[in-house]
C-alpha cells in the first residue's frame, strides 16, 4: 500500500459508481485492547461481502482521509484512512494504519466477492 | 500408547508464542506433533512494521509464515481447518465438536495442547479450547489424552490457581526465537522493545485440565 493520493482514489471510486459492488468494511482496536490495558473495551465491527450500489462516492479530508458512499437507501462511511492500493484484480483497498502500522480501519470495494 | 502430541489453536502464531518452546522440546526428543490451526488469522491487526501486508494479502502472508514456523519447530503434520478468524464462537458448536472428535480419534494423541476456555483472552481462543475439551470429554476415560491448557488472562490464577506445568525452555530458546521471527507480520512490532519478546523466552506454563 502507499499513502493515499486523493485524486487517484477519487477516480477509482468513480469507476465503481452505479454498479453492484462487494464491500469490506471494518474497524477495530484489537482483540487484546483490554488485556493490554490499552482501552477499557475491545471494539470492532466488520462486514465482508456486503453487496451495495452507490451513486455518489467521495474521498475527503487531508491525511487521514474520510470516504462516504451514498446509496439509494443509506450511507457507507469510514474515517481515519491513510493508505491505499488498487490491486491486480482492480479492487480498491483503503486502510487506516496507526502510528505502529497496525490496521485500525479498512474500506475495500471489489466487483467480485472477497475471498473468505 | 506411543507418544503423540496434538496442538489445537485458532491463529497462526498461537503455537509459537504460547508453546513454541514446549513443542520444540517434544520434536527434539522425537515425539511427533500434529497441529490443527483453525484459521489463517485473516482479521489480524498487525501488518508488519513497517506494514507490508494488506487485509487481502494477510491470510496468504500468514499461511506462509505458519508453514515456516512449523518447519522451524519440527511440526511435521499441519492441518489447516479453514475457519475464519474471529468467527469460531459463531459456528455451529455440534458440527465443530464432532469434527474435532473425529480428528482426535484419528490422530490418537497422548497429549493435547490447547487454550484454557474462559481464560485465554481472545474469543477464538476460548471458543476453540472449549470445543476441543468438549470433544475430548466424549472419549472414554482410558482413551482420553492428557490436556495441557494454556491460559493468560490477567486474573486467571485467582480463578484456576497456579499452573502445574512449568517448562524451562532455555534449551530450545533459539528454535522458539526463530519461530517468532518466522511470524514476521505479527512479531516485527514486538522486536522494538526487548522486554516484550523476553517474556516469551523464559518458561511456558500450562494447567493440566481436569475432566
Ligand atoms: Zn491467537
Written overview of the protein:
The complex is a heterodimer of chains A (116) and B (211). Chain A is mainly β and 116 residues long. Helix content of chain A is 9%, strand content 52%. In chain A, the strands form 2 sheets. A 6-stranded antiparallel beta sheet of chain A has the order 1-7-8-9-2-3, covered by helices on one side. A 3-stranded antiparallel beta sheet of chain A has the order 4-5-6. In chain A, strand 7 and strand 8 form a beta hairpin. The mean pLDDT of chain A is 95. Chain B is α/β, with parallel strands linked by helices. Chain B has a single domain (5-208), classed as Rossmann fold. In chain B, 40% of the residues lie in helices and 18% in strands. Chain B is built from 8 helices and 7 strands; from the N terminus they run E-H-E-H-E-H-E-H-E-H-E-H-H-H-E. Chain B has a 7-stranded mixed beta sheet, with helices on both faces. The interface between A and B is medium-sized, with 25 and 21 residues. The complex binds zinc ion. Zinc ion is lined by residues 10-11, 14, 122, 125 of chain B.
What topology does this entry show?
The complex is a heterodimer of chains A (116) and B (211).
Chain A lengths: L1 E2 L2 H10 L5 E8 L15 E9 L1 E8 L3 E7 L2 E8 L1 E4 L5 E6 L5 E8 L6
Antiparallel strand pairs in A: 1-7, 2-3, 2-9, 4-5, 5-6, 7-8, 8-9
Chain B lengths: L4 E5 L4 H15 L4 E7 L18 H16 L3 E7 L9 H15 L3 E5 L7 H15 L8 E5 L5 H5 L4 E4 L4 H10 L1 H4 L6 H5 L4 E6 L3
Helix pairs in contact in B: 1-6, 2-6, 3-4
Zinc ion binds next to loops of chain B.
Key descriptive features of the protein:
heterodimer; A: 116 residues; mainly beta; Protein Yojf, Chain: A; 6-stranded antiparallel sheet; 3-stranded antiparallel sheet; 1 helix; 9 strands; globular; B: 211 residues; alpha/beta; Rossmann fold; 7-stranded mixed sheet; 7 strands; 18% strand; binds zinc ion
- What is the end-to-end distance of chain B? 20 Å
CATH superfamily of chain B: LmbE-like
- Are there runs of chain B of 5+ residues with pLDDT below 50, and where? none
CATH homologous superfamily grouping of chain A: Hypothetical protein YojF
Rg of chain A, please?
14 Å
| Total of helices of chain B | 8
Question: Which of globular, elongated, flat, extended, rod-shaped describes the shape of chain A?
Answer: globular
Number of strands of chain A: 9
Order of helices and strands of chain A: EHEEEEEEEE
Percent of residues in helices of chain A comes to under 10%
Biggest sheet record of chain B: 7 strands, mixed
**Widest sheet: strand ordering of chain B:** 3-2-1-4-5-7-6
The total beta strand count of chain B reads: 7
